Every structure is written in C-alpha cells, then in structure tokens.
Amino acid sequence: MLTRFLLLGLDKKAGVLLAVLALLAVAVPVMALGTAPDSPWHLSTHSVALMGKYLCFALLALALDLVWGYVGILSLGHAAFFTLGGYAMGMYLMRQIGPRGVYGNPILPDFMVFLNWKELPWYWHGFDQFWFAAVMVMLVPGALAFAFGWFAFRSRVTGVYLSIITQALTFALMLAFFRNDMGFGGNNGLTDFKEILGFDIQAPATRVGLFVATVVALAIGYILASSIVASKLGKVLVAVRDAESRVRFLGYETERYKLFAWTLSACMAGVAGALYVPQVGIINPSEFSPASSIEAVIWVAVGGRGTLAGAIIGAVLVNFGKSYFTAALPELWLFALGGLFVLVTLFLPKGILGLAAQLRQRLPSRGAVAAKPAGQKGV
Fold it and tell me: Would you tell me how many other CB atoms lie within 10 Å of the CB of residue 44?
C-alpha cells in the first residue's frame, strides 16, 4: 500500500526530475573523485559543496511549495524550521570535536568554555549520538510547527495575517538565538566542525557523500510531496486552498488538513537545514532572518508555485545567479532579486514551468491554422 501511494505522483515530469537527480548522484562523485585535479572535467571540493548547498535550498523550496502552492499558506517564516534543523545537526557536530577544540574540553563546546559555562545544558545531552540528532532534526521543527499551527489554524488566522505571524515567529527566534545565555553560541553560532559519523568533514570523499545524501533526501522529499498532492488528501488540500469555507461546510475539518501539511513541510525544511550545515561549515542566528524566508518565497515564485518541480528549479537557478552576481555585481544583487520577483509576478505568474503553457495559449496551433478555409484571415 505504501509503495502504491508513493507511485501516485510519478508522472512524466517527475520521471525527468528524478532522472536528473540520479545522474547528479552518479556524475558528481565520478567527476570529483575519479578525475585528475588538472582535468577539465574535475569538480573541486568547493564546487561540490556549493552544489550541495543549492540542493538543500531546493528541498527548502519544495517544503514551502507544499504549503503555499497546494494549501494556500504563504509562510514568511520557513527559515525558522530550516535553521532549527541546522542547529540540531550543528549541536551533534560540536559534540564530535571533543578535546581537539581550542580549549580541549571533551564535554563542553569551545564557546561554552570561553563564556565560563560550568556544565553542559540539559538540552545538549544526547547530541553526542547521531541517531538522536537525526530525530531532533525533524522533531524540533515539527513540534514547533505543530504547536504554532494548532493555535493559528484553530483561531482561523489566514491570509496576510498568518504570513505576518510566521515572520514574527522567525524574527523572535533570531533575537533569542543571538543571546549568549541561550547556549547556542550567540552571534557566532556553531562552527569549526571536525567530523561527521567518524569521517573528516573536510575530506573530498566526505563532501561527496554529503552531496549524495542531499540528492537522496531531495528525491525522497519530491516523491513524498508528489504522492500527497496526487492523492485524495492532495485534492482536499487544494480544495482548502481554493474555497476553505465550502470545504468546511461539507464536513471536513480543514484545520487538521492544514496542520498536517504545515507540520510535514516544517520537518522537510528541518532536514534541509541539517544537510546544509555540514556542507557550509557554520550555522548562526542570521539564518533565522526574515529575509531568508522571503528569498525562499521568491525561489518558489520564479520556478512556479504549485508545481513542486518548479520550486526546485527556481531555488537552484536563483541561488546560482546569486553566487555569480554577488561576485560580479555585489551592489546590485538585491535590486536584481527584487526586480526578478516583480517581473515574475507581472509576466510569469506561473513561473518558469508555466511559461511553456502560457506560450501555447497565446500562439495559435498549427492544426487550427490549417483548418481555416483558404483565403480566410485569422482574427
């Protein structure tokens, strides 16, 4: 039954996307580890990490598209779930440093020794085990999303009001994590990681392994989201998006459906954050910034809201452009990003994936032209 459910969303578009991900999972390790450094086909460790970061953002965009594109919940706070998952992984990585840290304390992370902490806080216990951290990566964002959604959806907060509250949530978390007494490194965050699962985190093979893990996580997330939206549950979610009051009148408890999608989306965002941290090498409170959540909205809008695959494409393309233009034109990048969002909103309301369909609607088909009587002009 589970297999049948997961196969629901596997159409031609899904097959193409999964084939591309499978190709990346094979080609990148070969190009990074199986070619000479002076070969034109060689991928540097930096390039592998950069591509892995793009795919982490793609998973975040996929999670956001699930709730915005199919349930109508415009979240301006998904960076909170992404960053909480990142902190959970960062806590595990900090516990692996042990006596190799600057201050050589096998129990306390370096920043705690520097700040004169006497003992490890209770909420840091268990993070010396990978399985515990992996559970917390989904449990912490999921629990926060569930608690938030329980009160917000039952209070029937919707529209722009809900969006503002989600932004306030991530801003409040950012201010809290900036405090040194929170026990998360304050402004500097968590960094200087050494190992993950016993492997050197800076080694090329480890970087490739993290990239492949990100590809697998993105593929699983896409299959899961596609199966949900293609099922009867997905049809109810779309109905809630389009006419929630009518769906409620028919007897559906719309709050439960919204809460399910919202919580699942938060867990997916947490996984994206957890994969992001070891590849980037740092996690700090700036990741909670509301601007990060707004950027994720732009990724989804550019790729195509309500398409899933478009969210992935938009995240990769926008972040690739960001990497290029912040080096070439650093002063103009934010203006370019804002202009891109305006252009997409005005001329590409369905994003990149909707462009082909939009062109087909505007251009007359060949069959329609051939069917006209000879000498008759088109209107």
Answer: 13
